[in-house]
Design brief:
With about 270 residues, this protein is mainly α. The chain has helices spanning about 1-15, 20-35, 40-50, 55-65, 70-85, 90-100, 105-120, 120-135, 140-150, 155-170, 175-185, 190-205, 210-220, 225-235, 240-265. The model has no long low-confidence stretch (mean pLDDT about 95).
Length: about 270
């Protein structure tokens, strides 16, 4: 109805101008005036998702999908919300439905690939990433994700190719710069590694893995103060608990060596 659309537009206007919580009432009015429209549910879901109210967001996205099964944006967001909660078995069918609705949706193929990879289904994930890149070759994040998958499978040549493809799209894409840095590091090409880590930190001064790489190189060169400074930054910035543990293990080994050296030179 016309009144429902007025409320919907007002809600969108408020949300766009940074008044998200005020837009909620407008969307609820739109739902009351036109209970069969999926749109206010979708936009209300977005507000909840931005405010980290995931269960409420999921409820609204599900309602939008119930009202219009072929409304792809609502299915996409529903899938992403499920995936963020680790409910991959719920996310994957949503992405598959989006692909059925629009087979050329590169983002849906990439989302599906990511969820399959998290499930450990690497071959189907590879297929979906390649499909996403066939549809949109200029997506640095997807090139990077595919590179990471190849690295997991120890196909380092193909991994490097994808990381470099990501940099062709976006020369400052820090995750790819860091990944290439680590590949050089593992092959004992420390000078090249340092170059890539520094480029990564120029692109993203909060890249924990790049700081960790720099710290490792300084530690190997015996520059203990610079190593400590970069270890500290890496630990401050790292959010992933497993990576943080790996960093702490290295750091304790480094500190043992430092103490031993200081003891020997005392």
């Amino acid at each position: 109805s016309e009144n429902a659309n007025v409320q919907l537009v007002m809600g969108l206007f408020l949300a766009q101008s940074g008044q998200s919580e005020r837009s909620v009432d407008r969307y609820k009015d739109a739902i009351r005036l036109d209970p069969h429209s999926p749109y206010p549910h979708y936009f209300l879901g977005q507000i909840h998702e931005r405010a980290d109210r995931m269960e409420m967001a999921i409820k609204e996205y599900r309602e939008a999908v119930k009202l219009n099964a072929s409304y792809a944006p609502a299915r996409t967001n529903l899938g992403v919300a499920y995936q963020e909660q680790g409910r991959l078995e719920m996310a994957i069918p949503q992405y598959r439905e989006v692909i059925k609705i629009n087979p050329n949706d590169a983002v849906a193929h990439a989302n599906l690939a990511c969820a399959l990879a998290e499930q450990g289904k690497l071959e189907p994930a590879l297929f979906e990433y390649k499909e996403a890149l066939r549809l949109n070759p200029r997506d640095a994040e997807v090139h990077f994700a595919l590179g990471g998958l190849y690295e997991t499978k120890s196909r380092l040549d193909l991994a490097m190719k994808e990381y470099e493809a990501a940099l062709l799209v976006d020369p400052d894409f820090a995750p790819a710069l860091t990944a290439i840095g680590w590949m050089h590091f593992d092959k004992d090409r420390k000078h090249e590694a340092m170059e890539y880590f520094n480029r990564a930190l120029k692109g993203n001064p909060e890249d924990a893995r790049a700081y960790f790489g720099v710290a490792r190189i300084y530690a190997e060169r015996g520059k203990q103060d610079l190593a400590m400074e970069n270890y500290t930054k890496a630990l401050e910035l790292e959010k992933d608990p497993d990576r943080k543990n790996a960093m702490l293990t290295h750091l304790s080994g480094f500190l043992t060596t430092v103490c031993r050296d200081r003891g020997a030179s005392a």
